[in-house]
Amino acid sequence: MTGTRISVTRQTARWDPEAEVSVKEAMDFWSFAAAAANVVMQLASPGVGYGVVESKVDAGSILKHPWKRLRTTSQYLAVAVFGSEEDRAAFRAAVDGAHRQVISTPESPVKYNAFDRELQMWVAACLFVGLEDTYKLLRGEMTPEQAEQFYRSSWTLGTTLQVTADQWPATRAGFDAYWDDACSRVVIDEPVREYLSDLINLRMINPVLGLPFRPLLKFLTIGFLAPVFRDALGVRWSSGKQRLFEWLFLLVAFVNRFLPVFIRQGGSHIVLADVRRRVRANSSLI
Amino acid sequence: MIINIVAVLTALRKLLGVEMTLAEWIGTAVLAAIPYLVIGMLWTLTHIDHLNGLGRVDQVASLVVSVISWPVLLFSDVCVA
Asked: Cβ(A9)–Cβ(A247) under 8 Å?
């Protein structure tokens, strides 16, 4: 199956071709430009899509509590990538508590259960794809060895919840096969499309704040979607926009090289510190 | 509040062990220079009386030096023309 990944013709050259790589380096704050696209990808699996749209856990809803959801999702990523085993165990317990309530009813269009390891693997795969795409745009193409290292370092994106290490295909090439196969089952039904449309149009935040960012978010979101997801969502892209997207990230990648790590990734460490504070204070994580 | 000295030292060693690329050092210097130069410009704009009567080149040179060396000029009345 083709069109399952974004394709970029102009991207930054690698400055450190021999370096060891890890998913940690993909956590520069620019990567969050692909956040909404990642939500689209995750929800394009019907079990995840209906699970989120029908969810009764309002406290975790991005449309009802967008800022809280931004915090908890960025904390999940920070814990999965930078956290210790204890951080991961604490966050897993908290997410499990919410996920227990996410289970299909007889009226649901598809059967789902948030503890379904296959669905969780799909979400983790989407996170990996998002981080790999942004990493390559910011730092350049990887050698096959680097791609394996990067892939192997990403497994905690899933194993922080119920995904097991042996669920991840053993090699990076194996992941491509998994991804292409999984993308053949991508469907975005009307209720999920409406939900995603509200998200991309920022209808959940104050319009004074949201309106100025709407065109940019739309541009970035569609730019980070592979053709299969664009088609499923029913959005259009053009070669002119693709050119703009690639030039934009050439500029961003250049600027990013000059930013010290505490600016690029400081945010993740701050939200991770907040997770640890909450664990110590016994206050709720999500 | 009890401060765990071992944990503090570990964190400090980790912080001091951070490696940065030359590009990151340059970027850090640029970022640090921004507030410094903004203050310099504000200070200069409020202290331009002495520029009257100077030639064009001298005026520009005086402004540039004033923006850069505002901390010195705060405490001394050096003539930078």
From this structure: no
